[in-house]
């Protein structure tokens, strides 16, 4: 075999190895992304509210070798460290359960129509409740309950004068008199950014609480 042929074989082998390495790198990156997403996805939104990945109204996080009372204390400490003055919204059964009611202003940004004048961008306040129950080695998280609402100012119309101000509620499922909702009455998704925004928000909050609780005593 001459030198030119040897070089061609070497270059082909090198390109193949480089391709294999790139493919392996991409595979590892995709695997890591899928793993991270699966760990972060505690709940998904449906017309019935939040459900777990197996369509239950709760999910269970395994925390091996940690006693019930320690899990309770760690989650409670995590909530106290992540929220400003959470005591007002806390309802606890010592060593057994924690319920947190919270309110966040401008937590959700949604684009939708309102009043028939095209689509606008609106910021919604979010009130919600998170509930945790504990057993040795396990944390049960119940499906979050929530309400989205925004304040609107009355507008002036020459024929009728000033309109009233008030709260507009973003309904989960659209009723006959509702202007805006996340789903229609047949379960069709109407506001994808509302659905994905709520899922991302609650899964992120829960992930922060659980991860923080695991690190409470690791300092």
Automatic annotation (TrEMBL):
DUF4468 domain residues: 59-142
A Pfam short name: DUF4468
Protein name, per record: DUF4468 domain-containing protein
Species this chain originates from: Flavobacterium bizetiae
InterPro entries per record: DUF4468
């Amino acid at each position: 075999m001459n030198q030119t042929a040897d070089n061609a074989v070497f270059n082909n082998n090198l390109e193949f190895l480089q391709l294999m390495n790139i493919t392996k790198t991409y595979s590892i990156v995709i695997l890591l992304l899928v793993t991270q997403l699966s760990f972060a996805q505690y709940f998904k939104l449906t017309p019935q509210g939040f459900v777990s990945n197996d369509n239950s109204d709760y999910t269970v996080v395994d925390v091996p070798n940690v006693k019930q009372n320690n899990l309770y204390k760690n989650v409670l400490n995590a909530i106290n460290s992540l929220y400003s003055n959470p005591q007002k919204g806390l309802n606890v059964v010592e060593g057994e359960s924690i319920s947190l009611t919270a309110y966040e202003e401008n937590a959700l940004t949604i684009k939708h129509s309102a009043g028939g004048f095209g689509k606008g961008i609106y910021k919604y306040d979010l009130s919600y409740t998170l509930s945790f129950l504990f057993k040795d080695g396990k944390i049960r998280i119940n499906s979050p309950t929530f309400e989205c609402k925004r304040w609107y100012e009355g507008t002036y119309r020459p024929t009728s004068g000033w309109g009233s101000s008030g709260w507009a509620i973003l309904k989960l499922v659209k009723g006959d008199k509702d202007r805006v909702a996340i789903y229609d009455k047949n379960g069709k998704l109407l506001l994808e950014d509302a659905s994905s925004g709520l899922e991302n928000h609650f899964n992120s909050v829960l992930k922060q609480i659980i991860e923080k609780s695991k690190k409470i005593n690791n300092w």
